[in-house]
Amino acid sequence: EKEFDHCFLSIPIDQYFNNCFGELPYRSIIFENKNINYLQDAPVINFTDKNVYTRSTQWSLFPNSPSGNKNDNHTVTLEKPCTISENKGEYYYPVKTKNSRTIYEKYKKKSKNLKKITFIGRTGLFMYIDMAPAVNLHMKIANEYIKTQKDLSDQENLEFLFDFANEADSRIFDLAIMNKSLIIELKSQTA
To answer: What's this model's pTM, rounded to 2 decimal places?
Structure first.
């Protein structure tokens, strides 16, 4: 991280600080693939009872999946919840308790002193994030960082901006430009 102007780290924030305030708890999942000789009622079944598994996924029931299995064997993936100590390094769900929130707030406060690092992701922010909100949240974090930069006109930043814009969906930019006056009008009404 010393060789970069700024780092966005999606690593466990507690591990970055050597667990100085304690370890943040997570649940994990162990995936087990099994062959079955019947069809499930749906591609994904969530178990809400006391079953050892929380979910079963039969891949051949999804659209565009090969279904011409001649011997009636079908693969299902079963999800079994476990602690992070049972599945090291596979962080799925932060365990939010009063104590874990207190510990995280200490790490968050300590991280504010790091001017060249921003923590992101489930383990950096100690929060469960679905994919769609994750994209929005991290775009917001990136935009907030960019707003703090006084000079984006040096070669490195210009190359970054070019690469970012080039990789982004140009259709979004086209739509924003086409609807610029409507967006300005809408935003001025809500301000």
So the answer is: 0.70
